[in-house]
């Protein structure tokens, strides 16, 4: 309504709405109420998001203080004099009361300052900017493979329950649940890299291309495509495809089982009979009607699966020498490098919380019943 | 009413294999349907809904449907290939189910659900389908079709939901409507309204209506003819106006177990069921000597 007067009209939306008397009051007020509900729901989400983040920081802060690792000693070394030790302690703010330390900690983290890593010598934030994209790329590829294969597999398994696709899906999921990833990873490297030579070896790229692609997103596939360097793209793809397929296989196992059970529930619903009575083909009944209804819970499943790949691909990263956050946290933890460990923990935690909020928001967007 | 009946069914059986052997949900049902309102009455599990689904070819494997005859306008429709059956489903025979809360797709707007039914059988563009959907919404006496068109099923009341179902199922102009307990889930106050709307539409279009219900009074008022089903078979068939004069002991039992304002009793009769009703020979002459002269 106010589109013709963008400057004045937008500042005062109620005034803009007032001179339209033809609008029946009932639907208008209903829409306003719906908007209010939506705003309240959004406020609730944001509040719970803030509280969860605060909780996460509190937990990492406490872990950092109760760990039997003396951060001062790690910095000054074992041969420092007591005066040097005390000076370093004060410089790090460790002589302050805990509450003050916590507030300082929150301030630092919010500014993106996670302290300096002892094992790499760089600021942790800088390390994380380097390793996190590697994990993000791997987890995203894994989830993509898991979704593209797992969702159709689950849908067909449910639509043809007991058929051969269902049997194959059942076995594939069982294997996916029960095979240890380090074994599959080593076997995969042996067969596809060692014997067949179809894929690149460990690491993100060959030495040949190392540092050759200009960093934009730090996701190698995207950066090399942006740079138009298709040799580097092929190389990066060859390196990521095997670990991503393995991770994708595990998320496929989970996603296909969940998809199947969501679909079975929907396919026995009464509106499916309605769709069949209309004379729709089985394909349209399954994809056009039932699938639309499982989109909502499926989003949550996919987000959770993505989150678990972001935090839980430590073994895969180690086997494939993938320079991601999993191997970063493991290496620094073994070195007692708490700043790095806690910084990595915060990043993973924030990702997980963010994904949860995102799936919550998508849920409201996709399901018309959630106002 | 000349020529073949709209729908002619002889010896319809629906069986499901179970661990204890075959279970027969429908056992030898025969009837003819003309351009009339046929009531099918019976208790839960008597096979009345399954009969409706068998006609639409909606009995899913491992369930099995057999019949000596199942003709639509003289053409056999039993065990047609799925592709040809889909053209009949919705296009020539349609069905309204019990509860619109469950029988409408919750994540699709009402309008597109109606358009989908229409476009599937009548073809045509989106604009024509939209016009048709609005016209059908108006035909079921929805006051503001434009607004209702864009609503989701959870935003409409039960009575309006059932009117939307009727609009959707009648949009492609089918010849037969199967109404499976269409008012059981509705408030008593809107039942009559929905029934009248359905009745008017079915009558105007000269359709055949199979009205499945467990409500004897409703069927007696609303239908022309009544089939009484028990344990998967038809135990009695008679004109609705003669229901009070039913002869079969099961029908009498159903009637006697209803409370009546004009003849109050201290204790209502308990419905009796006798095993031999399951097995008694159904008089073949009963079907062929049907009242109503439909042959």
Which class best fits the helix and strand makeup of chain B?
alpha/beta
Strand content of chain A: under 5%
The main pleated sheet of chain B reads as: 6 strands, mixed
The percent range for helix content of chain B is: 25-40%
Sheet having the most strands of chain A: none
Query: Mean of the pLDDT scores of chain B?
Result: 83
Helix content estimate of chain A: over 70%
State the CATH architecture of chain B: 3-Layer(aba) Sandwich
CA-based shape of chain B: globular
* Number of helical stretches of at least 4 residues of chain A: 16
Per CATH, the class of the largest domain in chain A reads Mainly Alpha
Please state the overall shape of chain A, judged from the principal axes of the Cα atoms: globular
If classified by CATH, what would the architecture of the largest domain in chain A be? Orthogonal Bundle
SSE blueprint:
The complex is a heterodimer of chains A (371) and B (295).
Chain A: H1 6-11, H2 13-17, H3 25-66, H4 71-76, H5 82-91, H6 98-110, H7 124-159, H8 164-178, H9 181-195, H10 220-227, H11 230-267, H12 270-277, H13 282-312, H14 314-319, H15 325-334, H16 338-366
Chain B: E1 7-18, E2 21-33, E3 37-41, H1 48-55, E4 64-66, E5 69-72, E6 75-76, H2 82-88, E7 93-96, H3 100-103, H4 110-122, H5 126-139, H6 145-149, H7 158-170, E8 176-180, H8 188-204, E9 208-213, H9 216-222, E10 225-230, E11 233-239, H10 249-256, H11 275-279, H12 284-288
Parallel strand pairs in B: 3-9, 3-10, 7-8, 8-9
Antiparallel strand pairs in B: 1-2, 1-4, 1-5, 5-6, 10-11
Descriptive overview:
The complex is a heterodimer of chains A (371) and B (295). Chain A is an all-alpha fold. Chain A contains 16 helices and no strands. Chain A has 2 domains: 66-110, no CATH class; 124-366, MetI-like (MetI-like fold, Orthogonal Bundle), CATH 1.10.3720.10. Chain A has helices at residues 6-11, 13-17, 25-66, 71-76, 82-91, 98-110, 124-159, 164-178, 181-195, 220-227, 230-267, 270-277, 282-312, 314-319, 325-334, 338-366. Chain A starts with 5 loop residues before the first helix and ends in a 5-residue tail after the last helix. The model of chain A is unreliable at 1-28 (pLDDT under 50). Chain B has 295 residues and is an alpha/beta fold. Chain B has a single domain (7-288), classed as Rossmann fold, CATH 3.40.50.300. Chain B has 12 helices and 11 strands. Chain B has helices at residues 48-55, 82-88, 100-103, 110-122, 126-139, 145-149, 158-170, 188-204, 216-222, 249-256, 275-279, 284-288, and strands at 7-18, 21-33, 37-41, 64-66, 69-72, 75-76, 93-96, 176-180, 208-213, 225-230, 233-239. Chain B has a 6-stranded mixed sheet, sandwiched between helices. Chain B is globular. Mean pLDDT of chain B is 83; it is low at 283-295. The chains are: A mainly alpha (371), B alpha/beta (295). The interface between A and B is medium-sized, with 23 and 31 residues.
């Amino acid at each position: 309504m106010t589109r013709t007067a963008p400057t004045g009209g937008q500042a005062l939306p109620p005034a803009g709405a007032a001179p339209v008397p033809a609008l029946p009051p009932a639907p208008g007020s209903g829409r306003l109420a719906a908007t209010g509900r939506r705003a309240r729901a959004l406020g609730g989400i944001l509040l719970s998001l803030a509280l969860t983040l605060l909780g996460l920081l509190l937990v990492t802060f406490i872990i950092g203080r109760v760990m039997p690792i003396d951060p001062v000693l790690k910095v000054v070394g074992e041969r420092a004099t007591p005066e040097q030790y005390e000076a370093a302690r004060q410089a790090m703010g460790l002589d302050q009361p805990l509450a003050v330390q916590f507030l300082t900690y929150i301030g630092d983290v919010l500014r993106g300052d996670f302290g300096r890593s002892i094992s790499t010598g760089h600021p942790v934030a800088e390390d994380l900017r380097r390793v996190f994209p590697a994990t993000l790329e791997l987890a995203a590829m894994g989830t993509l493979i898991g979704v593209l294969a797992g969702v159709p597999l689950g849908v067909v398994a449910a639509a043809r329950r007991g058929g051969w696709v269902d049997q194959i899906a059942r076995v594939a999921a069982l294997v996916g649940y029960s095979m240890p990833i380090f074994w599959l990873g080593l076997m995969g490297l042996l067969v596809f890299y060692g014997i067949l030579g179809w894929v690149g070896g460990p690491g993100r790229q060959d030495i040949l291309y190392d540092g050759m692609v200009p960093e934009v997103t730090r996701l190698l596939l995207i950066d090399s495509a942006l740079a138009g360097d298709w040799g580097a793209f092929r190389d990066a793809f060859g390196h990521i495809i095997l670990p991503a397929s393995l991770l994708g296989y595990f998320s496929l196992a989970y996603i296909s089982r969940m998809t199947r059970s969501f679909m079975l529930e929907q396919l026995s619903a009464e509106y499916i009979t309605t769709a069949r009575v209309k004379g729709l083909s089985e394909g349209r009944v399954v994809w056009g009607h039932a699938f639309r209804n499982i989109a909502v819970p499926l989003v949550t499943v996919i987000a959770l699966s993505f989150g678990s790949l972001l935090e839980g691909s430590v073994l895969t990263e180690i086997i494939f020498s993938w320079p991601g956050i999993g191997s970063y946290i493991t290496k620094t933890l073994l070195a007692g490098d708490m700043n790095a460990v806690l910084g990595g923990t915060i990043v993973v935690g924030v990702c997980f919380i963010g994904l949860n909020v995102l799936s919550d928001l998508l849920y409201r967007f996709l399901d018309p019943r959630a106002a | 009413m000349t020529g073949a009946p709209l729908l002619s069914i002889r010896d319809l059986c629906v069986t499901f294999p179970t661990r204890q052997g075959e279970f027969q949900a429908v056992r030898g049902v025969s009837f003819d349907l003309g351009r009339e309102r046929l009531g099918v009455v019976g208790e839960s599990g008597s096979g009345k809904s399954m009969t409706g689904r068998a006609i639409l070819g909606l009995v899913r494997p491992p369930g099995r449907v057999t019949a000596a005859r199942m003709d639509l306008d003289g053409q056999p429709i039993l065990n047609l290939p799925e592709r040809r059956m889909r053209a009949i489903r919705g296009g020539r025979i349609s069905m309204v189910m019990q509860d619109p809360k469950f029988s409408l797709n919750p994540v699709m707007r009402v309008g597109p659900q109606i358009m989908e039914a229409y476009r599937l059988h009548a073809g045509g563009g989106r604009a024509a389908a939209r016009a048709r959907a609005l016209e059908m919404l108006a035909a079921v006496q929805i006051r503001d079709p434009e607004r209702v068109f864009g609503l989701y099923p959870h935003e409409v009341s039960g009575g309006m939901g059932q009117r939307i179902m009727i609009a959707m199922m009648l949009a492609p102009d089918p010849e037969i409507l199967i109404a499976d307990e269409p008012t059981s889930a509705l408030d008593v106050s809107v039942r009559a309204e929905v029934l009248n709307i359905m009745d008017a539409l079915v009558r105007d279009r000269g359709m055949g209506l199979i009205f499945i219900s467990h409500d004897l009074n409703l069927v007696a008022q609303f239908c022309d003819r009544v089939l009484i089903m028990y344990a998967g078979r038809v135990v009695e068939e008679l004109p609705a106006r003669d229901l009070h004069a039913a002869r079969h002991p099961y029908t009498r039992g159903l009637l006697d177990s209803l409370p009546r304002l004009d003849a109050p009793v201290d204790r209502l009769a308990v419905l009796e069921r006798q095993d031999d009703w399951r097995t008694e020979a159904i008089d073949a002459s009963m079907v062929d000597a049907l009242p109503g002269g439909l042959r």
